[in-house]
Amino acid sequence: MNKKNIFITVIALAIVVIIGILSYWLIVNKAVFQNQNLNIQNNQLKNQPAPTEPIKIGYIGPLTGEAASIGEPGLAGAELAVKEINEAGGVLGRKLELVVEDDQCSNKGVDAMNKLVNVDKVIAITGPDCSASAGPSLPLAQNGGVPVIIRWASAPHLTKIGDYIFRIYPSDAFQGQFAADFIFNKLNKKKIAVLYVKNDWGQGLRDVFVEKFKSLGGEIVFDEGVTQEDKDFRSVISKIKAKKPEAIYLPLYMAGGVVAIKQIKESRLKIPVIGGDAFDADEVIKSDFAEGVMYTVAIVNNPEDFQKRVLEVTGKKSEKITAPMAYDSVKIIAEAIQKAGKIERQAIKEALKTISYKGISSPLIEFDENGDLKSAVFEVKVIKNKKAEKYQ
Amino acid sequence: MILQVIINSFITGGLYALIALGFSLLYNTFKFIPFFYGAFAIFAGYFLYLFNSINLPFSLGIILSFLVLIILGLLIDFFLLRKFRERKAGSVIMLILGLALGIFLENLLLAIFGPNIKSISLPFENITFNFFNSSLTLIQLIVIFISLSFLVITFFSIYKSRYGLVIRSLISNPLMAEILGVNKEDIFRKILIFTSLIAAIGGILYGIEYNLEPTAGTNLTIKAFTSAIIGGLEFLPGSIFGGFLLGFIENISVLFLPSAFKDGITFIILFLFLIFKPKGMFGKKTREEMSG
Question: Is residue A325 situated within a structural domain?
Answer without folding.
Answer: yes
